[in-house]
Amino acid sequence: MEKSTVETKILADALTPRQIVEELDKYIIGQFEAKRSVAIALRNRARRQMLADDMQDEVAPKNIIMIGSTGVGKTEIARRLARLVDAPFIKVEASKYTEIGYVGRDVESMIRDLTELSVSRVKAEQTVSVEEAALELAEERLLDSLFPMPRSLKNPRNQEPPDDLDIDDEIDDMDIDEDDIPFPFDLVDTTDEQNEALERQRERHLKTREKLRQQLKDGKFEDKDVEINMKSRSMPFVEIFSPGGIEEMDINFKDMFSSILPDQTKKRRVKVSEARQILMQEEAEKLIDMDTVISEAIERVENSGIVFLDEIDKIAGRESRQGPDVSREGVQRDILPIIEGSTVTTKYGAVRTHHILFIAAGAFHVSNPSDLIPELQGRFPIRVELKSLNKSDFQSILTEPKNALVKQYTALLQTEGIEADITEDAIDEIAALAFQVNESVEDIGARRLHTIMEKLFENLFFDAPDLEEKSVTVDADYVRGELAEIVKDQDLSRYIL
Fold first, then answer.
1. Is 341 helix (H, G, I), strand (E, B) or coil?
2. May I ask the CATH architecture of the domain 5-127+298-385?
């Protein structure tokens, strides 16, 4: 089949698997197999959109199960992946669906939340696209508040009444004096001199208004107080008791009440700088087509959405039991149709989950992926095991990523005017200690570095505002001195949780 220009552009614009891995390497150390798997799954999305329509529906997403202890980078890989391609992304914990037992259709909330997030993102993008037009309209409203046009210039005295206003007939039908009638239009004839005078006043007003407009653009009125009319709508509180949630009723009460209740305005006195932002938001709301926003948001969710299903091992059965817990197996069976492909009702419309990418993750210390129900296992064709972090990995995490921990702590101290030099031997010592604690207490991966670094810089952060010496060297001796008690004590959990 001959590909259209649009279809070819989809693949050309998409990152190659190698490029995706290279981008992930900027933030995540190691775990090449996991990066490779998600890169291939992401590239296959672009490939699918180049197929014929009937073939597109047949190609199922390559869902992934990541197996590894906490802190090895499972969540970070999924989050960075979604940010890399600007895809709607949501992280949910599978274990939360077991908190109140068998929860039925409540698992669909993950798709509703993903759709809500996508709508907000598309709306924000549309707001940026209409920002220039909204700014012009906001400035017009600001000028109306700062320099309003006199009514005499808005309604000149020589304005003609409408053609369909039959004044004589109205007077004949009413038994009142003609002189007592308050006419909406001034029917008094005006002279040419009066008309010319009004025209000159209007021209002067417009010239002055243009000068003020330029001064407003130049920021000369930013601190001036101005009174503006803002929309104010008080929504009534309505509580709905429904087993399936309000979305199941296919009613958007917010929109329903907004069409019933009239728009209300309230006067507010604020600075011009604040008023501009308020009025820009109001004008942008008017310029945005919400039907287009919702349509695009749903399309993104259906074709680009990523759901990160964490703690999937918590809903897997244990081999030591006769069978999986009823609640856990029930949650698996509720999640199954969503991953398998179904239609979820949201307040924005129906959303199909057939091509949403699901990335599940779990430590699987006391259970195995094979403990999941067979139907669910079959929906995760790709399984990748993430390796535990060693001392070398910790050294790389401290220094190599784009926003490495050493860079973060150095930047924090610079805000106090302190230049911190963290030496290589200090980094080696921190990495060795983090690895030792993970081996002795509990392996929490890279998160151990955060607790070690906080303990190491605790005194320095406390004293930083009062230090006279604005240069600090953090070397191996400094690390051992600050963490001496931790090193001496055998029960390290007393100091680092």
1. coil
2. 3-Layer(aba) Sandwich (3.40)
Domain ranges of the chain: 5-127+298-385, 131-287, 391-488
The number of helices, as runs of H, and strands, as runs of E, in the chain is 21, 11
Chunk the chain into consecutive blocks of 10 residues (it has 497) and report each block's average pLDDT, rounded to whole numbers.
45 77 87 89 84 82 87 86 86 75 64 92 88 83 74 53 48 49 47 75 77 76 75 53 46 55 70 80 85 92 90 70 59 86 90 91 84 87 87 88 88 88 89 84 82 88 84 87 67 48
3-state secondary structure of 301: helix
Strand partners, 10: none
Residue 190 phi, psi (nearest 5)? -115, 150
The single-letter code of the amino acid at 463 is: D
In whole angstroms, give the CA distance from residue 154 to residue 434: 75
Is 391-488 in CATH node 3.30.565.10?
Answer: no
Question: Strand, helix or coil at 343?
Answer: strand
d(CA 176, CA 180): 7
Q: Are 155 and 184 in contact (CB under 8 A)?
A: no
Give me the sign of the Cα torsion angle 308, 311, 315, 317.
positive
